[in-house]
Hints:
The structure holds 2 protein chains of 2 kinds.
Chain A: H1 5-16, H2 25-33, E1 38-41, H3 48-59, E2 63-66, H4 70-82, E3 88-91, H5 97-105, E4 112-115, H6 117-120, H7 123-131, E5 136-139, H8 159-165, E6 171-175, H9 180-189, E7 196-199, E8 207-213, H10 217-230, E9 235-238, H11 242-254, E10 260-263, H12 269-280, E11 286-289, E12 304-307, H13 314-321, E13 331-337, H14 343-350, H15 356-364, H16 375-383, H17 388-414, H18 419-426, H19 468-477
Parallel strand pairs in A: 1-6, 1-7, 2-4, 2-5, 3-4, 5-6, 8-13, 9-11, 9-12, 10-11, 12-13
Helix pairs in contact in A: 1-3, 2-3, 14-17, 15-16, 15-17, 17-18
Chain B: H1 3-9, E1 16-17, H2 18-26, H3 31-39, H4 54-66, E2 70-73, E3 76-79, H5 81-93, H6 108-126, H7 139-152, H8 157-169, H9 174-182, H10 194-201, H11 205-225, H12 231-237, H13 247-257, H14 262-268, H15 273-286, H16 294-297, H17 300-309, H18 329-342
Antiparallel strand pairs in B: 1-3, 2-3
Helix pairs in contact in B: 1-4, 2-3, 3-15, 6-7, 6-11, 13-15, 15-18
The complex binds zinc ion.
Amino acid sequence: xxxxxxxxxxxxxxxxxxxxxxxxxxxxxxxxxxxxxxxxxxxxxxxxxxxxxxxxxxxxxxxxxxxxxxxxxxxxxxxxxxxxxxxxxxxxxxxxxxxxxxxxxxxxxxxxxxxxxxxxxxxxxxxxxxxxxxxxxxxxxxxxxxxxxxxxxxxxxxxxxxxxxxxxxxxxxxxxxxxxxxxxxxxxxxxxxxxxxxxxxxxxxxxxxxxxxxxxxxxxxxxxxxxxxxxxxxxxxxxxxxxxxxxxxxxxxxxxxxxxxxxxxxxxxxxxxxxxxxxxxxxxxxxxxxxxxxxxxxxxxxxxxxxxxxxxxxxxxxxxxxxxxxxxxxxxxxxxxxxxxxxxxxxxxxxxxxxxxxxxxxxxxxxxxxxxxxxxxxxxxxxxxxxxxxxxxxxxxxxxxxxxxxxxxxxxxxxxxxxxxxxxxxxxxxxxxxxxxxxxxxxxxxxxxxxxxxxxxxxxxxxxxxxxxxxxxxxxxxxx
Amino acid sequence: xxxxxxxxxxxxxxxxxxxxxxxxxxxxxxxxxxxxxxxxxxxxxxxxxxxxxxxxxxxxxxxxxxxxxxxxxxxxxxxxxxxxxxxxxxxxxxxxxxxxxxxxxxxxxxxxxxxxxxxxxxxxxxxxxxxxxxxxxxxxxxxxxxxxxxxxxxxxxxxxxxxxxxxxxxxxxxxxxxxxxxxxxxxxxxxxxxxxxxxxxxxxxxxxxxxxxxxxxxxxxxxxxxxxxxxxxxxxxxxxxxxxxxxxxxxxxxxxxxxxxxxxxxxxxxxxxxxxxxxxxxxxxxxxxxxxxxxxxxxxxxxxxxxxxxxxxxxxxxxxxxxxxxxxxxxxxxxxxxxxxxxxxxxxxxxx
Lengths: 480, 352
Ligand SMILES: [Zn+2]
């Protein structure tokens, strides 16, 4: 099936209300229209979802999107709903039995079908999918298939087989960040060595990069408070632990930062929804979050992203700070570092790595394992016919990769040269000419003031609890 | 669980088993848990904290013991006089549920999710906005709200919902009504989170949850009792009025009432005899004495024999005292349930 450029522009105008594609979008769409499988590496916020949505509308056939996270799927379904597209579903483990039956019976009514690799191995689902002639298979967060990447997900290894079972539909592999090594690995594991490759620079020139080193945890907290109080909002502070996110949120509140809230997986779905909406509405200006926050956040005017803890690697860091400055305005990313901070990501990085002796013991006496057991991965490999030596080798190389990833991140922290150059080298990009406000290493004289990122004085306080009559009037009569 | 909740659930004149309290909160439906829930007068808390972890119970208990508020031997806990005073004082300064005895007749989490979604949908509808993120709720709840909205959709809907909620809330103490309403979500109104209310009011998360559950229960009861005064909310909320008795136990009781003998029920429904007995006990626990066929299941002469031998506090009775009467344990337990309901201290039968 071929699609003309004219048709693509027509869909762009009618469905999205745009007259121009953003960089990378048309290139990817053209490759797909020519029937070429495509690997698209586009930074977060570049509009990669528009590529498959537009293609789906143009060919009038269902699009299947494989996604690694439930929350990500839910966000994408909601975003499509929001634009008025109702023929969308996410076939996930969260679905009740009834819901799943109803959806599978009417699968051909859906234009966009989100799911996970595990779900896609279920025969009933595969059969239903085959019957509705998938127009495009999208592997979202395609870097998850690579054992070289930080977010490796073993179930992604099933995708090559799933693709074959679906009759090898046209495939789009999309990711926001990938080093040259990861790109090669994606194509190899998907068995698509000749796929077209579309890539944009991962650089975000309007984000000023800064690292603040402190001697102690206490200094770090003090630094954070003064940074947050001095910076223009809205902003996000990322933490690796829920507990610290809650604690520091409270410290900020006590220090006179009025509209701050914590966001993490420990909150109820209700509270997470409300915090997110309050942030979108600018009722909250600072969020103390774990990495659960931001996946579906499409807020253009975020001015700062601060990391209170070290992320696990540079890919994750780059992805998280990429939520700042989507509107193109000057923004800032600050990484707080206290010596010893690397112990947490080191621990987290090694947490799922199983020792050689445990692997051997498992192969000698296989047994069922719980979902949160690190041995789950060993069981998964064994189930998919890898032998003991192969599994041991996989874990050994993974351990090595995690160490390497952390070392790279520390290079970013400790470099005495331009930080952006470290990032560009890591992603295998040519070094671009740097903006004047690049980073604290090559323009140390740049201050928050001359970046124009200082906070205007705020006088608005968070909403009080209104009398119930006023609340009801606001809800139902539109009075505020 | 925090120690305030455990303090509330323990007593100074009745030793209580910690595992029973834990199983009640988690909502473990066994006859033993339900029976002791009845004896402790705590049945309403069944399923109040479904994700409760055992170590949280242990932590709360350790704190109470460290404070000198409770003593514990072999996982049986009792409040000290200090603990009893604390409990009393806490009750004076925190919200006390008024619909507690009906909590189990309302599917509270589903009703609350459904109501919030309905309010949001109506609010956005009134604002003529079709582009918004709906609250994420379970499929069945979403379908219920969707059906309701399609049937009720008309230009005056927002005004009607406003009117009915207003009528309900004017009968609730003002500060509590204000808090509850501030949780609702609608057009350009994201609603407050429980954490934010905790920040703003210094009421504990526990108290806020109790308020949320209790007001929701009241709203369901009020609208179901007066459909003509609350036509719109009556339609919405009826889906979440439920029976605390499990469907299979209700079925067994219905069969028995319709004249089937216990052995025919066993045969027809392919159940174990013990399961049928458990069904009857479960039903008896949740129903009032008048609603359950005690006379048929416990003949007069058996009741007389029990009454002669079983005296003193019900909690101290033992099956050994009557086991020579050629009866089974479930009959002994059924008698205990009946007597619990007839004496003042144990009557916690749910209003159905
Ligand atoms: Zn630089």
